[in-house]
Every structure is written in structure tokens, then in C-alpha cells.
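Supplementary Methods. Inverse-folding protocol.

Structures were first reduced to a C-alpha cell string of length 252. This string, shown here, constituted the complete conditioning input.
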């Protein structure tokens, strides 16, 4: 079975892969049929850690994975990423190709969600909705993306909305995020690493922080969503882990 037709809550139909369908809110008989078809015994729980660049997502994720694995759980943490070096057309932003690059960035984030086998947990440290937040930052030049390019990008941003609505979503905030971001980007530059965009100044960065926070209503249909403020310490991840475990009980 490569693709199947799933009826959504708004009475429309969508063609998806079996693994994508399993992460949606489908009826039990369909779920059992798909698990059998895929030779799997369970549906993994999906955790999406969202937040602005520099908030501390990766550190939180790595600690949570260690904790879950210490309990004997299997975790998949995919890191698929589109880089400018993957295609010569992406090296320099242009009107013709920039929207394609950004769309493929989101495609790779979406692929992180639906690439799994028989794990207990899928965890990703970036939401496909982050591109939606970036688009709404005043003064944040995304290159040469036209309104039509934005439209095509948004099709990919919301491609797996039904999966995200059924996932555990944790939005992180951190009062020290600007310092974290600036120090990280400065370190990358000193080490000769190339990034997709130049380091933001503080004003534009804080506009990005504001956009991420103000547009959280995009998760309005997500039943397992929490907004958590963390610090640069060794304790915040424990609070995030505890909340994830509480929310995960709703899957049982």
C-alpha cells in the first residue's frame, strides 16, 4: 500500500501515505488495518518542539530523548534539512528560485514527521509552521519571494495540518533567546560555517520573536498544545518532559 484516501473532519478527502495517516485522528479499524499492513504494533506519539531560533529547542530535545530512552522507549529524531549547497540554483537568493528553496526547507521538516518505523516516539525540533511565522516578520527580508511563491509555500506549510492537530506541540519561550542566538551565530561565523541567511540584528530578531508568539493561534485546533517558558539551566527540560508525558496520556 503506497497511498490511501482519508476522509477529514471537514468532509473533504486527502491522499496520504499510510505512515502519515497513522499520525492523524483516524478511526480504530483503519488504524489497525494500517498497522497490520506496515507490520507495526503501535502508532508512535509525535512531539513537535516549536520556538524561535536560539530559544533552546535542541538542548531540550536532546535531554528529553535521553530520558525517554533511559526508560526503554524507542525514539526517532530525524534531522533532514535542505541546504543552499544542495542545489546551485539556491546558492544566491533569486526571484526565480528562492520560494522553491524555502518550500523545500519546509518539505524536509515535514519529512521528519512521517519517517519512522516501530518507534514509541517521533520528536522534531522545528515546526513546519515556523516558515509561516518568518513570513510575517516586518523587516525580515526572505529574499525575492512573490505573493504567488508565498501561496505555493503555504501549501507545503499546511500539508500535514491534520498530523500537527493530533500531535503534542510545545512552544518554548526564553528571555535569553537573543543572547543565545547571537552567540551561536557569531560562533558559527568564527568557525567558518555557512548559513542560509546573514545574522539578524537585535531589532529584526526581536520582531521575529514577536511574530512567533503572536501567531501561535495557528495551533488553535491542536488539542495537546502548551506554551512553556524555559531558562538556560539544567532543570527546564524536566518540566517540559513532565508536561509531554501528561499530554501523552491522552493517546492511551
Amino acid at each position: 500500500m503506497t497511498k490511501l484516501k482519508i476522509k477529514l473532519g471537514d468532509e473533504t478527502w486527502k491522499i496520504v501515505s499510510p505512515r502519515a495517516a497513522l499520525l492523524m485522528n483516524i478511526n480504530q479499524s483503519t488504524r489497525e488495518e494500517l498497522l497490520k499492513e506496515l507490520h507495526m504494533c503501535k502508532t508512535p506519539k509525535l512531539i513537535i518542539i516549536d520556538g524561535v531560533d536560539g530559544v533552546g529547542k535542541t538542548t531540550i530535545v536532546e535531554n528529553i530523548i535521553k530520558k525517554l530512552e533511559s526508560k526503554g522507549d524507542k525514539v526517532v529524531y530525524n534531522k533532514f534539512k535542505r541546504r543552499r549547497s544542495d542545489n546551485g540554483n539556491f546558492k544566491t537568493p533569486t526571484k526565480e528560485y528562492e520560494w522553491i528553496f524555502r518550500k523545500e526547507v519546509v518539505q524536509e521538516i515535514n519529512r521528519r514527521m512521517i519517517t519512522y518505523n516501530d518507534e514509541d516516539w517521533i520528536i522534531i525540533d522545528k515546526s513546519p509552521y515556523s516558515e509561516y511565522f518568518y513570513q510575517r516578520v516586518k523587516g525580515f527580508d526572505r529574499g525575492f519571494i512573490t505573493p504567488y511563491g508565498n501561496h505555493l509555500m503555504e501549501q507545503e506549510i499546511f500539508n500535514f495540518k491534520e498530523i500537527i492537530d493530533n500531535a503534542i506541540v510545545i512552544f518554548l519561550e526564553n528571555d535569553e533567546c537573543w543572547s543565545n542566538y547571537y552567540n551561536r551565530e557569531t560562533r558559527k561565523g568564527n568557525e567558518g560555517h555557512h548559513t542560509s541567511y546573514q545574522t539578524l540584528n537585535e531589532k529584526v530578531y526581536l520582531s521575529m520573536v514577536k511574530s512567533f508568539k503572536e501567531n501561535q493561534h495557528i495551533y488553535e485546533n491542536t488539542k495537546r498544545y502548551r506554551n512553556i517558558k524555559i531558562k538556560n539551566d539544567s532543570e527546564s527540560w524536566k518540566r517540559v518532559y513532565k508536561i509531554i508525558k501528561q499530554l501523552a496520556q491522552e493517546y492511551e
